[in-house]
Amino acid sequence: MKIEQIYTGCLAQGAYYIESEGEVAIIDPLREVNPYLERAEKAGAKIKYIFETHFHADFVSGHVTLSKESGAPIIFGPNANPSFDCIVAEDGQEFPLGNIKIVVLHTPGHTMESTTYLLRDENGKDHAIFSGDTLFLGDVGRPDLAQKAADMTQEQLAGTLYDSLRNKIMPLADDVIVYPAHGAGSACGKNMMKETVDTLGNQKKMNYALRADMTKEEFVKEVTDGLLPPPQYFPLNVKMNKEGYDDIDEVLARGTRSLSPEAFEAAANETGAVVLDVRNQQEFAKGHIPRSIFIGINGGFAPWVGALIGDVKQAILLVAPEGREEEVVTRLSRVGFDNTLGYLEGSFKAWKGASKEYDTVSSVPAAELKKAIESTKTQVFDVRKPSEFEAEHIEDANLAPLDFLNDHLAEFPSEGDFYVHCAGGYRSMIAASILKSRGIHNLIDVQGGMKAIKEAGIPTTDYICPSTIK
């Protein structure tokens, strides 16, 4: 028996390859399916099943394409009702794979079709669970995403999740291995550990939601407390996972068309496409196409695209590092953004070489901010999460979380320079690009973010005035 976790850091997502006696099961595959097909072919094995733990909200799964390419059936748990052919399994149903078995444990609560798959080894012993978004390491799946589809409140869903955990998962042996669908950084939970594999016994000790003496009322309160609004692309990804989508090859062919500066400019003017610049933030600061949006490929790229652009049908034109265009289109497709129209051939240097108009962002070291604070009244805007801001922030700084930046536009001064920072410089440059695209140009980005700010000796505090949190 072979179990391989295929972890994608950008999405904090775990897919799984399970092989026994020449037969393979894939759980929660990513959009690009060739790696699974190639793994099976190299091993001389055949993909027999494609298991989905639920209709994912934070990424588009590769189940439809993988089924088409491999001939393997797609399997969902009870209550699933997709638009394509699949097996809707019953609770407790067993699927033989070589000399092992995969057992369906219906665990609703995160969504009503949410299912955990229990792997029993060749001796019939419970070996591992693939828990999807039902159980994470350190947390459980948020219960607010499926309210509309289930016609239930988040409290009712949380109560259902409590029952699923207590009745289906916690009775399992402590040595059972937990393989979740996500790790730290995913918006599907709020308190996940950085580890991606653990034992159920350790989770019973470490995970607040698995306390043995926890009442349902306590569980509902703690699980629903502090939930931020989900990114607006989540329901659109659910729809694609439920109804189907274009093959990844079609998306790549469409998105990797090279465009000269003239053709790129014409396409932007004619289509209303968002110009998405994915280079390094300091390269963007030194020069970029006016009104383009920066979301760097080397950061939390795909989730930020989903959160900030939102509409998966939005046309996109790319400015990317040369040679990485296909990677960018692939990573966009993972969160459902399939309408990439092409990329700027020769990247930004070709645009500049064609004598096209371009813009810049004023970006300075933290020492410059310190001088400004000491010499004059200076407005500083922190675009980190409220929890980060509450833990520590510059004295008298304003909070404008990047996720909800558009809600704070009226707060930015129209006259006089102001400073923008985050934790390390990535999010603040995204914020700067959005502000400039909205006509707000009197901003200065602080390089290196909070880390550099502390090193520069700028006074900080952990006190927070409730009126500043919005």
Characterize the structure shown.
This is MBL fold metallo-hydrolase. InterPro entries: Metallo-B-lactamas, Mito_Persulfide_Diox, POD-like_MBL-fold, Rhodanese-like_dom, Rhodanese-like_dom_sf, RibonucZ/Hydroxyglut_hydro. Residues 269-360, 374-462 form the Rhodanese domain. This protein is of the alpha/beta class and 470 residues long. The protein folds into 3 domains: 2-235, Metallo-beta-lactamase, Chain A (4-Layer Sandwich), CATH 3.60.15.10; 246-353, Oxidized Rhodanese, domain 1 (3-Layer(aba) Sandwich); 363-468, Oxidized Rhodanese, domain 1. The chain is built from 17 helices and 24 strands. The strands form 5 sheets. It has a 6-stranded mixed beta sheet with strand order 1-2-3-4-5-6, with helices on one face. A hairpin with a 2-residue loop joins strand 2 and strand 3 (23-27). Helix 4 crosses helix 6, helix 8 (248-255) packs across helix 12 and helix 14 (366-375) crosses helix 17. The longest helix has 16 residues, at 154-169. The chain is globular.
